[in-house]
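Re-running the complex after MR caught last week's input typo. The corrected sequence lines follow. Everything else is unchanged.
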Amino acid sequence: MLAASSLLEIARVAGTNIAAKVSPNVKWMPADGALHGQIVDRLMFWNLAALCAIALVGHLWLVFAVLRRRKASGNFPTAVRWGLIAAFCAMYAWMALTAQRQWAANRYTGPSLTAMHVEVVGEQFQWYFRYPGADATFGVTRSQLVDAAAGNPLGLDPRDPHSADDVVTSVLVLPAGQEVDLQLRSLDVIHGFFIPGMRLKQNTVPGQVLHIHFTPAVAGTYPILCSQVCGMGHARMQARLEVVSPADFAAWMEARVNQRERARTGETAK
Amino acid sequence: MPATFTRHPTEIERKDPGIGGKPPVDRRPTGGGGDGENWDNQPHGRNGPRELLIRYRLGVMFALAGDLMFFVALVSAFFVRQTTGHFDVHDNFINDWRPLAVPPILWLNTAVLLLSSAAMEMARRQLFHEIDVMEEWLGLGRPAVKRAAPWLVAALVLGVMFLAGQWIAWEQLVREGFRFTSPDPSSHFFYLITGIHGLHLVMGIFALVAALVGLFTLKKIELRQIAVDSVAWYWHTMGLFWVFLFVLLVFFQ
Amino acid sequence: MSRIFSRIFTTDHRRLGILYLYLALAAVVVGTVLSLLMRIHRVWPDAVIPFFGVMKPEDYLALVTMHGTLMVFFVLTTAPQSGFANLVLPAQIGAQRMAFPHINAAGFWLTVVAFLVLISGGHIHGGAAISGWSMYPPLSALSASGPGQGLGVDLWLISIGIFCIAAWLSAVNMLATILAERRAGMTWSRLPMTVWGWMVASILTLLVFAVLLAAVILLFSDRHFGSSFFIPMGDMINGRVVGHGDGSPLLWLHLFWFFGHPEVYIAVLPGMGLATSLFANFCRRRVIGYRTLAGGLVAIGLLGLAVWGHHMFVSGMNPYAGTAFAMVTMAIAVPSTIEVIGWLAMLWGGGMQLRTPMLFALGFLSFFIAGGLTGPLLAQPALDAYLHNTFFVVAHFHLVMGMAGVFSVFAGIYYWFPLMTGRLMNETLGKLHFWISLIAAYGTFFPMHFAGLAGEPRHYDRLAGPAISFPSLIPVERGITFSALLLGAAQLIFLWNVYISARRGKPAEANPWRATTLEWNDGALPNRIERGPYEYEFPPDEGGLHLQWESAAKQE
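Corrected-run output:
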């Protein structure tokens, strides 16, 4: 019993070490910028490696069988057949469990209490991002008030005190190393919020507010795409995520606030 | 043996022309690498007198299985729609489902439809009475038809009454201001469910009329049996579906 | 005149089978041309296409929608299921005819009507629907949401509604035939595997098309009768608030994919049965583990009814439900593996006759392995959250459903051609067709995995967008397009082969493949079937073929 468990432990440690040493990224995927992306990439790599190997072996088997002109006598051994099936079942179990652990870590739990909150709104064919501002509370929106031409693309209600300091942008700027909770909405049809570089995808569904949380780790610019067909502008419904240092983020945010204040005072002066 | 009784399926084991009159032994069952598999070695698909009846019954049953899934989809949509809602500006969960008070006449309609189903069953049974069927097969008159026809007419009349009752229920609802196009999801579902069920019954009425005509025009007793039997199973199933839908509409609003 | 009429509106199942194949051929020609137009547009976005002009984004999306709908409904559902089953199913179970010939014929003609209604969508003002074959609302529920979303979606819904009824009718007929019309002695363990495939596919058809019909009716009601089953409160299109009830778009996703996933199995189960038969026939070897393989088909069908949520991992569905669907999806890999290993075990012994039908069956197996293996990968929500709706998924289902399905249809046509025309198809042309198609199909669909890993989403009419233009994918995309054009061109060989072989092909003997199953019997059948379908393992010196239609007693 003890021997078995220590053997398992050795196997686990060795496996982890090997996996850590040989934890290459899949060459075709864009560089990962999110904290959880490393695990996704590792799982992806090992899955693809296993499946490619199996596909190769399967096809070699086929080629061998095709080239074998003389018919072998006797049937394929039943024990081997069932042994192979059992091996496959073990592999499927491994896949299901490893992926499930990652899925639960990402989706079963909410963000930490210190996470930053940003709202993502999809609309034909544009992404908007809203920061709650100093009061850390999103203002009320009403779809009746939506008027992009008048500078209110999300329908912020001016009578709500929380909406005064909300910042609405078309670029998602996030500080590196800070966990962020995105709350996703859609004004019209189902869109797909997809940041390949963050290994992040979640549909935005009209009538629903969906949450997804992650931690951008590496500074840089990442494209944001729409992954669910949403009409004729689907392919052009793109935006950028800019992950910057916390200091740069603070400066950017201040500039946005000042800009909005200037716009507001200009409006009242008129 | 000619006709198709319910009680004694006349299956006579065909003598095998094999050696020594022994039944054939399946020495090489299919597949499995000879691990002696012999799933069922029962005779099947024998071209007996009941074959046609079984075929039609199977057809009706399969068709109704698909139909059941259709209604299951509607009912699941009913339950989902009942719970969906949105958050208003004060973060209160708002749901636009307002329970619909079902017109009381539906209780009467349900009773009428059940009676109709009972009449249908009486008609069906008349056609499987051994003595009558024998007489009809021998060409000594048509006692089964004579006995079944009034029950069939009764089922038909009761079915039409049910549909008329449903129509009255709709009119009452319209008078109360619930139309299909009114924004209440509960009234959408009420009209949709009763309407589609009613459409099924309209088809059933046509089938009943056809069976009634067939009762007098079809030359073979087997075909007369099939006509009534198929319509009866359809009719019973529609009655059963209605009971479930009725319970849904009354108690699960 | 009446003779022509009765020849067209026939109730003869063999003629209906051929008519279904003609219908599928028409659909596959249209669907292929549409896909080639899309491929050309992706690589040369500004090219002026003859008869088409410069393609607008909505044109591209309309092409995607029509391509998917045509291929899934009118090719992969009709040809392997209705086409081949009508052609040989009654003969394979020793029946004289279908259980309900008129219902069968009605099913076919309703399918034709559905096809015509769908095709007409391309010729109306505004064009065909642009919301993809899965028609997610509210995009599909609101006619203001884009060009083609008015009459185009209406025609789509009507067409699919009719198709549902047609599929339902033919499934009723098929199941009643299999259950009630078998000749005496045609027990469950003596059914050819094709019959198992058709039976499971028919059960699925019966159960899931009814659900799709209900969903289509609800969506139609949302569009025209002011209901809000799928449109949420406050939903707005073009700056106008249109949502007035608490509808749920996710409800459509659930109803649609409850149909949509089993539909995949409807397309591929008959092919799995056919491949099993052909492997046995051309390896001269009985099916290894007949019961296991038949049980596997049934298990795939049953589990297939409970996996629809794996299309919805990132749709906003509860993540716990995602886990449950992931586990069931992983479970369905087990019977699929059992099938594949069973086939590989049958082939292991070698000595196979590489005739054209066998080549296509091997091609089917190759695609089933290559495309099927990415299934367990996509079944993992954590990984699917990256790959969902990228070209990786496109590669996956085009290999495992599209190419495997189409290759099984080709295998069936080459195999049963003698039953349709009394002639064999040309082997040289057939092999040429096979090799070019195999290489071009891999050339077309395999690189799509890389595009998907790079994060390229589906339904993009061009690569260059405001934020990303996937520069590294341009050579890949070019290669895919060239390969797709080659794949399309290779099918001209097939059409020519069909044409020339039907007229001047080598006349076939009664049982050209020395098969044991009943469809090759051209004489009188015994009253009772006493043999299994795949008793091949008897060389001629041991008494020749053990045909299913010969009495076992006579052999001894």
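None of the earlier attempt is carried over here. Chain A has a mean pLDDT of 88. The helical segments of chain A are 2-21, 37-67, 78-108, 246-269.
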